[in-house]
């Protein structure tokens, strides 16, 4: 049987920030009179197995300590259950935490917020996306951005946003628009040529790139950002604007909203929450209120704070 609260720390974080961040988070829950158990595994699959076992055994909350990869593991364990999720964001990107207005790289504050929310209301309902049997909280990337993501995840240096900037420049050398088949709620199949199609439950990926800047996690819909056929020069102009979300006003960019999206394109792989889903075609659906998140603010409030 697990303790009342379970901290999920991935194996790669045990000797780094994750292990250090777990201590103040645990202290915050213990100060609130709750017992704490730490769960990790030998690899991501084992860690997920242990997280699911903790949920099945009745833990009262699962707290993900790490980055978006750790959050992704936690979502697979708690989505669709009554177990709330807490997030102590100390990773590279932390996009799920940013989307929900949670503290980033401040484990003591994140722990206190989660403990207070657990005692107060048990967390706020948050929508999730689901594609290929995998839950995701932020963005499903396909096209140029998924290729950048794939390259960036292979890189060990530099850290943070600069890694994706360098990966973007490298991918430009082989850049070509891709023929997509896009199907939304109306069932009509749209054939388009696009640089990328991003499906957002949340607003950002890659450490703050707000590709789906208008996405909300409480509206039951996914935002589908389509960057159409454009030249390398145009892409170099548009892509940096993703960090502020101002790319949405460019003529090459269109946005759709739908509860269900099917994407098909040759030779492309989908990535969600920074994790590889597999080759297209993929169908993504929005599941309203699929998880309760401790301390989460509405997306509108989070966006207002971000300015």
TrEMBL record:
<dbReference type="GO" id="GO:0005524">
    <property type="term" value="F:ATP binding"/>
</dbReference>
<dbReference type="InterPro" id="IPR050187">
    <property type="entry name" value="Lipid_Phosphate_FormReg"/>
</dbReference>
<dbReference type="GO" id="GO:0008654">
    <property type="term" value="P:phospholipid biosynthetic process"/>
</dbReference>
<keyword id="KW-0444">Lipid biosynthesis</keyword>
<dbReference type="InterPro" id="IPR017438">
    <property type="entry name" value="ATP-NAD_kinase_N"/>
</dbReference>
<dbReference type="InterPro" id="IPR016064">
    <property type="entry name" value="NAD/diacylglycerol_kinase_sf"/>
</dbReference>
<comment type="similarity">
    <text>Belongs to the diacylglycerol/lipid kinase family.</text>
</comment>
<feature type="compositionally biased region" description="Low complexity">
    <location>
        <begin position="13"/>
        <end position="22"/>
    </location>
</feature>
<dbReference type="GO" id="GO:0005886">
    <property type="term" value="C:plasma membrane"/>
</dbReference>
<keyword id="KW-0418">Kinase</keyword>
<keyword id="KW-0067">ATP-binding</keyword>
<keyword id="KW-0808">Transferase</keyword>
<dbReference type="InterPro" id="IPR001206">
    <property type="entry name" value="Diacylglycerol_kinase_cat_dom"/>
</dbReference>
<dbReference type="GO" id="GO:0004143">
    <property type="term" value="F:ATP-dependent diacylglycerol kinase activity"/>
</dbReference>
<keyword id="KW-0594">Phospholipid biosynthesis</keyword>
<protein>
    <submittedName>
        <fullName>Diacylglycerol kinase</fullName>
    </submittedName>
</protein>
<dbReference type="InterPro" id="IPR045540">
    <property type="entry name" value="YegS/DAGK_C"/>
</dbReference>
<dbReference type="Pfam" id="PF19279">
    <property type="entry name" value="YegS_C"/>
</dbReference>
<keyword id="KW-0443">Lipid metabolism</keyword>
<keyword id="KW-1208">Phospholipid metabolism</keyword>
<feature type="domain" description="DAGKc">
    <location>
        <begin position="1"/>
        <end position="135"/>
    </location>
</feature>
<dbReference type="Pfam" id="PF00781">
    <property type="entry name" value="DAGK_cat"/>
</dbReference>
<feature type="region of interest" description="Disordered">
    <location>
        <begin position="1"/>
        <end position="22"/>
    </location>
</feature>
<keyword id="KW-0547">Nucleotide-binding</keyword>
């Amino acid at each position: 049987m697990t303790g009342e609260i379970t901290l999920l720390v991935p194996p790669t974080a045990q000797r780094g920030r994750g292990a250090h961040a777990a201590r103040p988070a645990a202290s915050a829950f213990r100060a609130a009179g709750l017992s704490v158990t730490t769960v990790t595994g030998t690899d991501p699959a084992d860690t997920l197995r242990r997280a699911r076992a903790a949920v099945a055994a009745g833990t009262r909350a699962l707290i993900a300590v790490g980055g978006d990869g750790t959050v992704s593991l936690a979502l697979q364990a708690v989505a669709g259950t009554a177990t709330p999720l807490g997030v102590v964001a100390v990773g590279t990107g932390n996009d799920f935490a940013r989307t929900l207005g949670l503290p980033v790289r401040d484990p003591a504050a994140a722990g206190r917020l989660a403990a207070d929310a657990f005692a107060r209301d048990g967390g706020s309902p948050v929508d999730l996306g689901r594609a290929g049997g995998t839950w995701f909280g932020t963005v499903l990337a396909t096209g140029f951005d998924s290729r950048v993501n794939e390259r960036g995840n292979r890189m060990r240096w530099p850290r943070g946003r600069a890694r994706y900037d360098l990966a973007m420049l490298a991918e430009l050398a082989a850049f070509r628009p891709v023929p997509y088949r896009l199907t939304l709620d109306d069932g009509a199949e749209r054939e388009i040529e696009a640089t990328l199609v991003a499906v957002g439950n949340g607003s950002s990926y890659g450490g703050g790139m707000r590709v789906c800047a208008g996405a909300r996690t409480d509206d039951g819909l996914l935002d589908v950002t389509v960057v159409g056929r454009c030249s390398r020069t145009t892409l170099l102009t548009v892509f940096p604007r993703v960090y502020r979300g101002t790319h949405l006003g460019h003529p090459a960019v269109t946005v759709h909203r739908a509860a269900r999206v099917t994407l098909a394109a040759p030779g492309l792989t989908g990535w969600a929450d920074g994790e590889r889903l597999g080759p297209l075609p993929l169908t993504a659906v929005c599941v309203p209120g699929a998880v309760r998140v401790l301390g989460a603010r509405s997306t509108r409030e989070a966006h207002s704070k971000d300015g």
